[in-house]
């Protein structure tokens, strides 16, 4: 990560893709995404999301391309 403001904003999301009913067996829950600048953004996601789907959701909200994001959960990179 080069520390640019785009990278700093690369960890938040929009719930717009979650409108409507969740499919059977899929749970919807909220996670808190901490950005490199220290701010935290709540994100509503489905349990069926993989790393790429989460990055796409984050890209919608922030306008930062998914391939410019670096997501880390519990010390491990999310692919």
SSE layout:
Layout: H1 5-8, E1 28-34, E2 40-46, H2 51-62, E3 72-73, E4 76-77
Antiparallel strand pairs: 1-2, 3-4
What does this structure look like?
Residues 29-79 form the Ubiquitin-like domain. It comes from Symbiodinium necroappetens. InterPro entries: Ubiquitin-like_dom, Ubiquitin-like_domsf. By secondary structure, the protein is an alpha+beta fold. The protein has a single domain, classed as Ubiquitin-like (UB roll) (Roll). Helices cover 20% and strands 23% of the residues. The protein contains two helices and four strands; from the N terminus they run H-E-E-H-E-E. It has helices spanning 5-8, 51-62; strands spanning 28-34, 40-46, 72-73, 76-77. The strands form two sheets. A two-stranded antiparallel sheet has the order 1-2. Strands 3-4 form a two-stranded antiparallel sheet. It starts with a helix and ends with a strand. Mean pLDDT is 74; it is low at 1-21.
């Amino acid at each position: 990560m080069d520390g640019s403001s785009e990278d700093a904003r690369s960890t938040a999301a929009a719930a717009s893709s979650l409108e409507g009913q969740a499919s059977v067996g899929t749970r919807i829950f909220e996670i808190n995404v901490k950005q490199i600048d220290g701010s935290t953004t709540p994100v509503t996601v489905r349990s069926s999301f993989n790393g790429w789907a989460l990055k796409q959701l984050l890209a919608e909200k922030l306008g930062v391309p998914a391939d410019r994001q670096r997501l880390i959960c519990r010390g491990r990179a999310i692919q």
